[in-house]
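ok trying this again, last paste got cut off
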Amino acid sequence: MPRLITYNVHRCVGVDRRLDVGRIADVLAEHDPDIVCLQELDVGRARTGHVDQARTIADRLSMNLRFHPAMAVETELYGDAILTRRPEQLVKVGALPTVAGVPGLEPRGALWSRIDIDGTPLNVLNTHLGLVPREQRLQADALAGRDWVGACEGATILTGDFNATSLTRPYQTLCGRLADAQRILGLKPSVKTFPSTFPAIRIDHLFVSPEVKPVRVFAPQSPLVKAASDHLPLVFDFEIQPA
């Protein structure tokens, strides 16, 4: 059964303030995923020792890597990635809309890979939305629109850190196009991932098309996992079925 993990790795700096890329790789390896969607990766940034975090994690897991820098300052990059050991093809990367005139907003983006799951193509979209509600609404509208989810054919998973709970309009917008995997499973209480030390908020989501049948969603909470990032990883087991 295929397994996907979505994980905001907080530039591989843990809640103990220790920078440890290997620790993030160890967390992922422990759960043996087929697909990994990561947010908040540094590539070549001075603040994290100029390491290519995306490549380092991919190499540790023996996975192919697709990285999209939502933000680039000269040679320093910051963004999101999709890793997999399955055959895959990059379909699209791109920026998401932002709000003009609000200081301090980080650029946001998304990436889309088509991954072969035992002969069936699976669209996997990974993103990290902004912090301002108006900005989130614009970004959710874009993701739900014709250039992203609207362009997907067949089995589709949209995942990442949406910085928005299930009570917000961006969440409702995305649920208008895809279904929340946790809601399909009827999970009560829902699986929360933030903050990692005492997970009380559900802002990391898994949205799926009808061809994707959720089997299990959970967030590991070992001492290693709780220390590695300010988010817990969200683990998703699923099957692909006809629509």
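PB: full thing came through this time. The radius of gyration is 16 Å.
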